[in-house]
Amino acid sequence: MTFLDVGGARLAASTSGSPDDPAVLLIMGAGASMDYWEPSFCSALADAGRYVIRYDHRDTGESTSYPPGRPGYTSDELFADAAGVLDALGVARAHVVGMSMGGAIAQLLALRWPSRVRTLTLISTSSIAGGEDLPSGGFVSPPQPDWSDEAAVLEYQVAVERALASPARPFDEAAAREFLTAVLARTTSPESAEKNHYATDGEGVRPGEKPADITAPTLVLHGTDDPLFPLPHGEALAREIPGARLVALPRTGHEFPRENHALVLRELIAHTA
Q1: pTM, whole model, 2 decimals?
Q2: Cα(228)–Cα(156) distance, rounded to whole angstroms?
Q3: pLDDT value at residue 170
Q4: Band of the pLDDT at 204, cuts 50, 70, 90?
Q5: What's phi and psi for 98, nearest 5 deg?
Q6: Are 135 and 161 in contact (CB under 8 A)?
Q7: Cα 237 to the chain's mean position, in Å?
Q8: Which of 160, 188, 211, 234 could hold 65 in an S-S bridge, CB 3.0 to 4.6 Å?
Q9: Assign residue 208 a region: left if phi > 0, alpha if psi is -120 to 50, beta otherwise?
């Protein structure tokens, strides 16, 4: 674990493998810390000869936290943190992997700083440009908890994980509860993590920014049962980015279950070779 000064914020980051190997930057989704890139996955990627970098977004994990509903940063600053992490670690170029909101950040990184991106891997996300008549999923967020009640917050987080998971695979509540307990233990303000990424001001996606202009070799990984961004979102994204390749993740919702680690590692290692 290390702490980086990025854009006026203190971001927690972790690296695996040798800095002499090709870098892989992992960017997680809204409200999610780097814990969602599990250590076993990162170690396997490092063992394949990659320098693996993951970090806590602002308001997640041990990074700078702001009052709930009042983020002290814009969406533009949140998006630019990915490039700032590379700068702080002295990494000129990286293979960039983004999931959900992290996939949107990865698209913008490839468009705004194309020389920094060796390859792009987009997981469970959608086009930053929208455009197609894509279906909405069936995800319904559980009622908000009393954020001062730690037990209630844990129950809420477990309920969210259940709602995002594929119904084709038994939901392992015990494993989810153990994992989320560890996540919450290193989260400065769970309420800020939940709310602040959605409360930012800023330009966001700029006019004219579209995946069709991405030049980095792109791999799209998408769950067949994603209730937030159904599979047609991944299919459309793969069509829009020139030369992109789509790999469907079977029995997968808006999640990154351990049973898919082997498939994702195989695809990611080949894509970043």
Answers
A1: 0.97
A2: 17
A3: 94
A4: confident
A5: -130, 140
A6: no
A7: 16
A8: 188
A9: left
Burial (0-12, 13-18, 19+ Cβ within 10 Å), 146: exposed
- At 135, the amino acid letter reads P
Phi, psi of 238 (to 5 degrees): -65, -30
How do residues 59-111 score in pLDDT, each as one tens digit? 999 999 999 999 999 999 999 999 999 999 999 999 999 999 999 999 999 99
Tokens of 119: 């390859």
Q: In what order do the strands lie in the sheet with 23-27?
A: 2-6, 9-16, 51-55, 23-27, 94-99, 117-123, 218-223, 245-249
Alpha-carbon gap, residue 246 to 218, rounded angstroms: 9
Residues 206-241 have pLDDT tens digits of 889 999 999 999 999 999 999 999 999 999 999 999
CA separation for the pair 164, 162 (Å, rounded): 5
DSSP calls for 28-46: --TT--GGGS-HHHHHHHH
2-139+191-271: CATH, from 3.40.50.1820, 3.40.50.300, 2.60.40.10, 3.40.50.1100: 3.40.50.1820
Residues 13, 195, 165, CA angle at the centre, nearest 5°? 80
Rounded distance between C-alpha atoms, residue 61 and residue 185, angstroms:
9
Return the residue matching tokens 């202009």.
Answer: 213
Stretch (H or E) spanning 5:
strand 2-6
Structure tokens at 92: 């000129």
Give the span between the Cα atoms of 55 and 49, in whole angstroms: 20
Give the C-alpha separation, 202 to 29, whole Å.
Answer: 18
The domain ranges of the chain are: 2-139+191-271
Nearest 5°: phi and psi at 79?
-65, -40
